[in-house]
Here is the input.
Amino acid sequence: MNPKRSLLRLFSHLDMPLTTLLGLLLLLSLIVVASASGENTDKILAHLFNMGVALSLMLIVSQVPPQRLMQFALPIYALGVILLLGVAVFGDVVNGSRRWLNLGVTRIQPSELMRLAVPMMLAWYLHYRQETLMRRDYVIAVGLLLLPVGFILKQPDLGTALLISASGFYILFLGGLSWRVILGLGAALLAFLPIVWNYLLHDYQQKRVLTLIDPASDPLGAGYHIIQSTIAIGSGGWLGKGLGSGTQAQLDFLPERTTDFIFAVYSEELGLLGNAVLISLYAAILWRGLHLASHAPNLFGRLLSGAIILTFFTYAFVNMGMVSGILPVVGVPLPLVSYGGTSMVTVLIGFGIVMSVATHKKLVKT
Amino acid sequence: MSHYRLIDPDEEFQNYRRRLRFAGLVAGLLFLVLFGRFVWLQVLQYERYQSLAENNRIALVPALPSRGAILDRNGTALAHNYSSHTLEITPSKTGGLEATLANLSRIIRIDPSDYKRFRRLLAESKNFETLPIRAHLTEEEVARFAVNRFRFPGVEIRARQFRQYPFGATFSHVIGYIGRVNQKDIERLDESGQLANYKGTDHIGKMGVEASYEPWLHGRTGIEKVEIESSGRPVRIISRAPPMAGHEIYLHLDAKLQQVAESTFGDFRGALVALDPRNGGVLALVSKPGFDPNLFVDGIDPANWGLLNDSPDRPLINRALRGAYPPGSTIKPFMALAGLELGVRRPSDTISDPGYYSLPGSRHRFRDWKKDGHGLVDLKRSIVISCDTYYYQLAQQMGIRNMHDYLAKFGFGRKSGIDLDGELPGVLPSPEWKQKRFKQPWWPGETVIAGIGQGYNLTTPIQLAVATMAIANGGNVYKPQLIRAWRDPATGKTSYAAPETLSRIDFKPEFLELVRAAMVDVTRPGGTAAVASAGTPYLLAGKTGTAQVVGIKQNERYDESRVSARNRDHALFIAYAPADNPKIVVAVMVENGGHGGSTAAPIARKVADYWLLGKLPEALKPEDAETPETELEDSPPPEAEAVAQPTDTTATTERPNP
Here is the structure.
């Protein structure tokens, strides 16, 4: 085969509008990471490298037909659960929580793997059972969701646990879980909130929620981050202070300014206009992603693509919400903008799946 | 049924799309909420967050002025600053003070006394204050800490200015000392509107010249507008109003003269005041014992404080200003002038002294110090031999009211107004005073003993010096002044303090000459201070005095050897020299020194010897036979040119630095 044509075929599995939007977002990310890191060349290069790796993985995953992906669902999920078990037993404690597994050569965070493995597993299960779908299947699906979530909550990593739960919920929701059950579960959750509060949440998690309600109650402790990031955003004004000129960012008043709180840097330096651009980009990605999902050829593809796109939205919303002070600080990066390889790889693999599903139509019979 | 089946894949597909659309709608709404939040923060609340961000980033850092030095008339530093490194802790930033202290002590020596002082400061301070733990770090210690700095948040090394008093105890009562600003100081500064100027200042003048010229010495605090990091570390200076250093203050004091005066006291307690009779400048002011003012600068430790405060010698009392003693016979020259001027005595009048005086109609005998009396005594001789009987009689004839009014002209009974705090007015008794003080009438016998400076009379050494100055300079009662000049470091201009005349006494020249001649004869063979004054190449005029500490009963004799050391008489001597052109006035008081002629007069003599001849007493002679400095800077500018007091900065004539 002509190598030139095969290269073209390689790109034929990319959805161009979506890829363009993602590229624009990554460009924005590069600029803001450069500014937030104080134009640290090492960090910028590492960020570029991460992008390269993540984009390559997206490209590769987009080549994999959905049927093949379906075959991976169970093994990846099983591996993830085993690794989570390993973490619970042998894991390294960092910053008071047990999230990392030391494999000798490298340390991994199995909960990251589960961000994709859980929706894949649930989508596969519902797809597998679609001919004879019973209420019991939803119960089993919830069980499949709660098993890893339980481990992750135990670490404890509330943010990841909540977001994985969300992705699982999206699968169930798109898979036709009846409204009555959803509302019933919601009511039950509300009823159990006091129990969750008292028995399941750690002190520091309780404190985060409390300081969200009134950050001023602990201005030097837990409330400090929220207060400082809110000040950063507010002082950005219409047009921002200019790249590299955000005083909150550059003078170290913002915590985690290249990762979880990068949005505060962006917002301070580029202002409301910048925020409008960013939200528009996210909305466009959401729109295009949902469009692709709605045209997916089979149930697995539909459920998984839809859940991936909605989870992507959730990450963005939760991050911006927490940095601007309307959601508790849960430690979620801003997807595709924050510095950090793991998140970028997970997110772009997700988009690779969405593209694979969207571009392998003709090979799939409905 | 507990299960259902998807009947129609198409219906399932439509259902899926509905749900997806619903989710997309919710997501879009949430984005709108988020955007609403941004509009709220960045548009509606912009001003507020903008100013919060500015407050975060900008710190106003006081730039401390360097405190003015205090120098003697020749430019010798009596109080000056030196720079040194201190290790300072901000307890609130350490994140565990005890651990920090423990780790710190592993790389830098911290003595128990350092800990103690730190704990005391800690107890007094607010949490966010920065407190010194170790001063005077060596270069090596500075380097060692710099390497380990990252391990110690909230700990830093600062270059600080320290106050030092190179002469230690010699000037303790004059120069005083600075100490840490306390709550009382803050309240006082607040009242005077000076508090802002003390932002960042740790020390303030507590006593002596350091206290009385505090506003001058302190200078003006500058402000640096600094951009800071969240850690408080300054990144860059945005604007800067530089501090203005405090004024240098030049005193009339002569360091060497002061040393001479102090050393001549030996182990005696007492006080000495030396004035320039031409302008009231204080050439020396000694109160023995003194204390080391350096101990007070960073807060005196309880052990040293106890030693000073509980000592029976009371080293913290400035005897020159607060030591009120009976003037004894030193009152006689002033009494003599009173008698002459008021017409109670003529120079030629003589009395016959049988060794005692009795009031008319009374058998009580007021005894002379010489048991058998001095025989025929005229006014001049009454001073030379210090005849008590003469003055018993004179006082009785003059009456207490006249005596009070005339002696008051010399400044007795009121504060001299010297530029130091804490002066006492002493007592110049009168019937009115007694009525007010004791609610009792005045008795005639009290007038008699007042005539020889006993009874209710109490004077301070500075008062004696001021009164003697009036005889030496022909009637000018100047306010004694320590300050001679001050130099503004900003302009480099030096201004001189003008002499301040409190009052003028118009003596009849022949009366003044008579008393002056008598005072000269006091130091000549036959006079009460003859031995101490033998061989002076200049004319020394003086008067001895001995003040009783315990009363002696009618039939007892005072026997020095039989009285305990602390009940011995106080020895007094007032003097000026050269008598024909006075350049120095000295008043000496030696507590429990016995006789004025034998204990106090030699001290005054040595002081005059040094001042007029440059002669150092044995104890102070340098090892190598260096010629002592004899060249003395001369008097300040004439009155016409000199102007206002230092407290009035607007009305000064500037003169170039001499």
